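Handout, page 2. Input:
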Amino acid sequence: MAPIDPSNNQRRSANGGRSSGDRPLPAPVNRATAVAVAPPSVRAVTVVPNELPPDEELTEAEIRHRKELDDFLLARRAERGDPWPEFLGPLLHAEEVRELVGLASLDDLDELVQQWRILALPTRPGGVVYPAFQFDDDGQPYPTIAEVIELLAPVAVTPYTIASWLMSPNEFLGDATPMHLLRTERDPQRVLTEARYAAAHMEQF
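Output:
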């Protein structure tokens, strides 16, 4: 498979379908995207969609949920370190991804992230990591990943929400994870339909 070209920024539409007996498809979502800028001293992707918004922009319920999540993560870190690599698998740094995908520069990687063609996860303070699960055996992002990111990014609280959705068992996918179906090339349109349904659900919160 040829390396992806960041200059081709056309996003493919995610047009999955269901049979008439399945759940109705949710209406298209449209919600503003938060933008996070990394400090100049850090060489990382400069724009990551949906960085967690400040407390003053959240509802009381969202603030409570954030605190519960922070408390849970702090407890897990105290027990066994950062829980995200345990759940998501290996997390790569920018230079590792640049070499893996076959890009000429880190700027090219920045472009692919901004185009929602590669999933990037912000870290503290101001860094970025990339889940290895999104790359195939040839080092290229699975084609459907871009469509999933495009569906979920406008409504996900943080990119970690997208990563978690991809790696969590889904009862409507036979209890398989979306990534399992994408890796095995089993009905990616079914995954996209579930992503649209998840996006509509996230928009309610």
